[in-house]
Amino acid sequence: DSGVTQTPKHLITATGQRVTLRCSPRSGDLSVYWYQQSLDQGLQFLIQYYNGEERAKGNILERFSAQQFPDLHSELNLSSLELGDSALYFCASSVGPTSGGTSYNEQFFGPGTRLTVL
Amino acid sequence: AQTVTQSQPEMSVQEAETVTLSCTYDTSENNYYLFWYKQPPSRQMILVIRQEAYKQQNATENRFSVNFQKAAKSFSLKISDSQLGDTAMYFCAFMNNDMRFGAGTRLTVKP
């Protein structure tokens, strides 16, 4: 158990709908990261927050948005869902942010939320 | 942009044997970190080993070791004395400002 929790575990919804995925980081961790893993593929970095502020952005679609709240939990909002959005969505947390490859903070991954869009 | 390439989609090895998984990456940065993650059927992402780019010495964690060739931008993972529990997807990852993953190698350890 990494200490990172994600809810729900599974989510089934229809095209065009909107869903919210929730992540609670490990106690003491200020950074939260979101990743998308499509079937049998590697993880794609979506977005990173550090202490409530957006820190880095990856391949996140405009239909997706995220935020980190004062209690440090984070939510990933996916709207106008398409079939291709079906994937495993991981949240990870670390004590601090990544910083140009000169500082390392291990990322601890949650169990993921499996989203199925029908 | 940084890219990570794993050229072996699938590999298999006999129990107790040694296997090497390949990874290459592309970057213009000098400071970065490299990782190997294991993803068993449970889908949990588990850190196997980490390498700092500024360190010449190859990282080792028990049966897992890496061959880090910075000039060649190569970062392979060697698993010695393979065990059935090593069966999993293995992802190579590069981290500078964010984390980039390769497409993965599916490793099967056969009894």
Question: What distinguishing features does this structure have?
Answer:
heterodimer; A: 118 residues; mainly beta; seven-stranded mixed beta sheet; four-stranded antiparallel beta sheet; 49% strand; B: 111 residues; six-stranded mixed beta sheet; 12 strands; 53% strand
Q: What summary fits the major beta sheet of chain A? A: 7 strands, mixed
Main beta sheet of chain B? 6 strands, mixed
Radius of gyration of chain B using CA atoms only: 13 Å
Name the beta content range of chain A.
over 45%
* Rg result of chain A: 14 Å
- Principal-axis shape of chain A equals globular
Number of E-state strands of chain A: 11
Order of helices and strands of chain B: EEEEEEEEEEEE
User: Percentage of helical residues of chain B?
Assistant: under 10%
Low-confidence stretches of chain B: none
The first-to-last residue Cα distance of chain A is: 31 Å
Q: Outline of chain B, from the CA principal axes?
A: globular
- Helical segment tally of chain B? 0
Instruction: Report the average pLDDT across residues of chain B.
Output: 94
Spans where pLDDT lies below 50 across 5 or more residues of chain A = none
Which two chains touch over the largest interface? A-B, 26 and 26 residues
Q: Give average pLDDT of chain A, whole number.
A: 93
User: How much of the polypeptide of chain B forms β-strand, as a percent range?
Assistant: over 45%
What is the H/E string of chain A? EEEEEEEEEEE
